[in-house]
């Protein structure tokens, strides 16, 4: 059988996720990491189907719970990155850029520079830096990200799913190409 995502049935997926959140709240409580992770999945689905205001509101609630109950959770930082993505989708490119720069700073302090999540966020931040014309900073961040993913074999990160490493490497190569274009052309000419 196909998953909801494979069938592009995001409304069905969201319904199932919302039921999961309610069950988790009853089983574990509203601030348990299992419940919060289920909420994050719902927020990501809301983002996918274009319900950005709902997604943003849910991500804000999730961040409050993570900050108070699981401040070092890698999922906290991943959901913060997605919250920045919602700002971008809502058209607030500068706000998203500021938000992701702060998220990256917090992530680096908490998880360190040699972490997969840190480097995925580094890439998202570099992308938005390009969007607002900060080519030098985008160059620096994308170079750090590319170096991390090229030198870090899967064996060194057994708890990290292989697709996340692949995503990171592909994103770093994409950013390297965009940075090259940005160095050679005015900002208006960059096809992002």
Can you tag this structure with a few keywords?
0% strand; disordered C terminus; 77% helix; globular; 192 residues; mainly alpha
Could you describe the 3D structure shown?
With 192 residues, the protein is mainly alpha-helical. 77% of the residues lie in helices and 0% in strands. The longest helix has 23 residues, at 162-184. The chain starts with a helix and ends in an 8-residue tail after the last helix. Residues 187-192 have low confidence and may be disordered.
Report the uncertain regions: 187-192
- Measured on Cα atoms, how large is the radius of gyration? 17 Å
Helix/strand-derived class? mainly alpha
Mean pLDDT: 84
- The number of helical runs is 9
The overall strand count is 0
Query: Beta fraction of the residues?
Result: under 5%
Task: Sketch the major β-sheet.
Answer: none
The H-and-E topology, N to C, reads as HHHHHHHHH
Tertiary shape = globular
Termini separation comes to 36 Å
- Which bin fits the share of residues in helices? over 70%
Write the layout of secondary structure elements.
Layout: H1 4-7, H2 10-28, H3 33-48, H4 52-69, H5 74-89, H6 93-111, H7 116-131, H8 135-151, H9 162-184
Summary of the model, kept short:
The protein has 192 residues and is mostly helical. It has helices at 4-7, 10-28, 33-48, 52-69, 74-89, 93-111, 116-131, 135-151, 162-184.
């Amino acid at each position: 059988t196909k998953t909801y995502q494979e069938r592009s049935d995001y409304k069905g997926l969201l319904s199932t996720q919302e039921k999961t959140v309610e069950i988790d709240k009853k089983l574990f409580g509203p601030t348990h990491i299992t419940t919060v992770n289920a909420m994050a999945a719902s927020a990501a689905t809301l983002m996918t189907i274009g319900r950005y205001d709902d997604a943003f509101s849910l991500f804000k609630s999730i961040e409050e719970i993570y900050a108070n109950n699981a401040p070092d959770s890698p999922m906290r930082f991943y959901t913060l990155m997605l919250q920045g993505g919602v700002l971008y989708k809502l058209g607030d490119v500068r706000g998203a850029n500021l938000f992701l720069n702060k998220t990256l700073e917090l992530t680096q302090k908490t998880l360190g520079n040699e972490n997969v999540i840190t480097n995925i966020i580094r890439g998202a931040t570099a992308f938005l830096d390009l969007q607002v014309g900060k080519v030098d900073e985008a160059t620096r961040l994308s170079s750090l990200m590319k170096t991390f993913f090229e030198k870090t074999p899967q064996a060194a990160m057994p708890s990290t799913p292989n697709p996340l490493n692949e995503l990171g490497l592909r994103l770093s190569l994409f950013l390297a190409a965009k940075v090259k274009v940005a160095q050679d052309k005015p900002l208006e000419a960059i096809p992002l």
